[in-house]
Design a protein that fits this description.
By secondary structure, the protein is α/β, with parallel strands linked by helices. The chain is about 25% helix and about 20% strand.
């Protein structure tokens, strides 16, 4: 019996046998997964990133980063970003990360920003001329870093580390390069972030 004859008898009330093998009847439990609505896929970075251009860079002086210096801004995120965009401040970082994971990229890694000031590390002075400066919002001596901001900072730093062949040992902080003059990061928070960054570095770089 063909399918059309069987359907005709079915709807007339006198089917005489099982449906033809060419007719596939699927129970709900065996329905194709393609029948269900697909889950939307993320098409943007997890943490919102804003690209800005700080005027506080050394024009015409490109650098090759050999280190990363971590900072905290002491102030809030919006105020710190605005301060770095003001030529009067003469302060800048390559990136500032907010407590909620947002980040503002203020300069390219090969631009000389003004984040370290009087500084020295590994027998070499002037970290501005050979490092990337990245800052967390607020004061790490008064609060702990949360996972969201650590994740966002790592998302920013890891591609730079890969591009410039930087290892975890090349990541330091302002306290270390300007001892007695600066207190960022808090030692406990620097250790926590380096541990987190190290795990991501091992897995991704």
């Amino acid at each position: 019996m063909n399918i059309f004859s069987w359907l005709n008898r079915l709807f007339s009330g006198s089917p005489d046998g099982p449906p033809p093998t060419s007719l596939k009847l699927l129970s709900p439990s065996k329905a194709s997964s393609t029948d269900a609505p697909s889950k939307p896929r993320a098409t943007s970075p997890k943490h919102r990133e804003k690209l800005l251009n700080t005027p506080n860079v050394s024009k015409g002086r490109s650098i090759v980063p050999k280190a990363i210096v971590l900072h905290h801004t002491s102030g809030n995120y919006n105020g710190s970003v605005a301060w770095c965009l003001d030529p009067i401040s003469k302060v800048s970082y390559h990136c500032i990360v907010a407590t909620d994971g947002r980040r503002s990229v203020l300069a390219d890694p090969d631009e000389r920003t003004w984040h370290a000031g009087v500084s020295s590390w590994r027998g070499r002075k002037d970290l501005n001329s050979w490092s990337v400066g990245a800052a967390f919002e607020g004061d790490t001596n008064r609060r702990q870093l949360n996972e969201t901001e650590m994740e966002s900072m790592a998302d920013y730093l890891l591609p730079i580390m890969k591009r410039y062949n930087l290892a975890l040992r090349d990541v330091t902080d302002h306290r270390t390069v300007s001892p007695g003059r600066k207190d960022d990061l808090a030692m406990s928070e620097f250790a926590r972030f380096k541990d987190y960054l190290g795990q991501r570095y091992t897995a991704e770089v």
